[in-house]
Amino acid sequence: MTLFRSLTVFLTLLCLWAMPAHAVLKIELTDGVIEPLPFAAPTFLSEGGDPALAKQISDVVISDLQGSGLFRAIPEAAHISKITAFNSPVQYADWRAINAQALITGAVTVQGDRVTVKFRLFDVFTGAPLGEGLQFGGTRASYRRLAHKVADTVYSRITGESGYFDSRVVFVNETGPKNARQKRLAIMDYDGAGVQFLTDASSIVLAPRFSPTGDRVLYTSYETGFPQIYLLDVARAGKRALETQNGTMTFAPRFSPDGNTVVYSLSAGGNSDIYRMDLASGRATRLTTAPSIETAPSFSPDGNRIVFESDRSGSPQLYVMSANGGNAQRISFGKGRYGTPVWSPRGDLVAFTKQDSGRFHIGVMRNDGTEERLLTTSFLDEGPTWSPNGRVIMFTRETQGANGTASLYSVDVSGRNLKRVGTPSAASDPAWSPLLK
Q1: In what order do the strands lie in the sheet with 216-221?
Q2: Contact, 299 vs 284, CB < 8 A?
Q3: What element of type H or E holds 111?
Q4: Taking the model in full, what pTM does it have?
Q5: pLDDT band at 11 (very low <50, low <70, confident <90, very high)
Q6: To the nearest 5 percent, what fractions of the chain are helix, strand and coil?
Q7: Measuring CA to CA, which residue among 119, 126, 124 is closest to residue 92?
Q8: What is the C-alpha to C-alpha distance for residues 369 and 371, in angstroms, rounded to an integer?
Q9: 329: which strand partners?
């Protein structure tokens, strides 16, 4: 643990948007210590329609950026300049005086149910725009998505990487006492807002996983009395079971990067192996044949390899094999037990759960097993899922004395910015969607 904490954080954000080349804002990450970039975002103007909605959109933009841990909003009470018109010249000296390095201005127009948000981004110290003429449109009901899109654009232009705010998370909502826990699939914005239920509480559900397009979810259900994988259409909430062999149990499913294939675990006769199924034909192919427990498979972003958990060495460890099966290479060699691996969307890292000396951790390692780092430690942390840009991990945490009540937490890949994700009740098994279209 001490060794992992002493490692220099590998994450660096050096490739930054430049429009023109001299107008560059830069976020420095040094040895895991980040000085958040101070920015000013005056309340967006209301150009007719609904000032309250303009304020709500502004607040979400600020919350998104601050919540990333990379930005710090300067309170509006400290602003010297006031934005009175969207196209007014920027008084850069006034924003420099309060140490704002970036300035975001915007305006909201409402016509009936139609909402348009336009915004501008400026590099205060160089006195140059980083984006003008930018706008998004939608409905009143989608105002949070509009705000997330604004924040994603700002994030991208300052860090040079894609954002993750306009995304959703599917998870297991839990209610009731520990000995009679009810579990339902639910979906929400990445920050816990807008929760909607996808299933009822008539049967236990586990381990939901988004498709690459975010329109379908795989999950495990005990609807028939034993674990079986179901495929659910998010928009219509229609579902179907994946056909498997009689007398078997199926669980831990994940989509391939193209969404056409599912990889999962199948248990029969006391042995658990990994299978792959073509969704169009329903044809299943067995990928492992070891007399041990193989589970929790996850595709690499290019679809060529699968990382999974196996106890073939005597304790649960992580292995990588071809997506077609065959010889597997062990990649975890640290002290303890490893499980629930999931490949980063960037392809460089594998996140995992680790149990060691009575404590649980969320960790990451290179996909060849090198540079292992533990990001969290707790009574029970498990089940990591990656943000669409591969910079944040969400997971399930259960604290000691919580009587089995689980919550969702997130942390960035440097181990910073650990925080709880608000949900209406206990929650577990999060899975992050891709960026929404």
Answers
A1: 205-210, 216-221, 228-233, 239-241
A2: no
A3: strand 102-111
A4: 0.91
A5: very low
A6: 10, 45, 45
A7: 124
A8: 7
A9: 320
